[in-house]
What we know:
Elements: H1 7-10, H2 21-28, E1 34-35, H3 47-56, H4 69-79, E2 86-89, H5 92-103, E3 109-114, H6 118-126, E4 130-135, H7 143-148, E5 154-160, H8 172-180, E6 186-190, E7 215-220, E8 233-236, H9 239-248, H10 256-267, H11 269-293, E9 296-298, E10 304-308, H12 313-321, E11 325-326, E12 328-329, E13 338-342, H13 346-359
Parallel strand pairs: 1-11, 3-4, 3-5, 5-6, 6-7
Antiparallel strand pairs: 2-8, 7-8, 9-10, 10-13, 12-13
Helix pairs in contact: 3-10, 4-10, 5-6, 11-13
Amino acid sequence: MNLKVPSYILSIQPYSPGKPLKELEREYGISDSIKLASNENPLGPSPKAVEAIKGAMENLNRYPDASGYDLIKKISESLGIGQENIVLGNGSDEIIGMLTRALTQARDEVIMPWPSFVMYDIMIRSVGAIPVYVPLNSLSIDLNSIQNRITQKTRMIFLCNPNNPTGTVFSKTDFETFLEGIPEVVVVVDEAYIEFVRDKKCARSIDYLNADMPVVTLRTFSKAYGLAGLRIGYGIMPHAIADVINKIRLPFNANSLAQVAAAAALEDKEFLQKTVDLVHEGLNFLYDSLERLGIKYFPSEANFFLIDVGKNADEVFENMLRQGVVVRSMTAYGYPDYIRINVGLHEENVRFIKALEKAM
């Protein structure tokens, strides 16, 4: 087949999400496995979200609300921002795609830290723009180096706070200094894990919605709210940018079940706090256990963290998989000796530690 595919599309390395749990169990001949590889909420969704989904099931023959009015209104009230500043997405991934399509074009430059969330790279390349990678400094995003890489071709900067896969954050003071020192480009801050942050100095980009510099914040219901399977997220941005994004947004991009579930999840503050508490307690337990074993780890502000296994991470991944524990090797991110795990239920955390001890 003679397909005329643009070279910038052919250059994209597809996102690798990992195999489904049931497929892994079949392939490896294991059962009762646990997955600690995708930074998911081990508690599942809010019970209120589940009830809202059940109540909406009978209307699946109807298209979803294209405007997302009820959910946007709840987000607006929850965060104290204008409804005109909110754009819904099929996960925050879709917002990333819409931003790159609407605000960049071929041969524009878009700066991103590396390693970070790979969808930035994929979406930048998908429009023919050029990703400019700025290495992390001690696992942290280097705002000074990013500032130094800005050129006349720079149209956008992606930042991830906390950063995935390292779990590090940048401070409010450093972010403000950064914004003051750069020309006017769109700064997109992905806060997918912001609910888990304990560091009170951490920057929260929503505070800069009305700043002179155009700042866009990405949020998701996939992590702390436990709705990863429904794919629902949103962007918070200046009205002028939201108007442009809405020109290319598909009219029914946020499905009806996702909208009602997310709205109910926002109201269930008790469940959100239960999730955050579970993650913080789990992190403390895992840190203590790794210290007891003499295994190096890197503290995180998210619901996941990196572990230096001191050997080939792919081999450790395989060894643990055969024990029914799924983690993520960081070889593809340039850390061949590191694995990344997310916090699970306490019994899952205990099982992980036992499996890791055997794998080492």
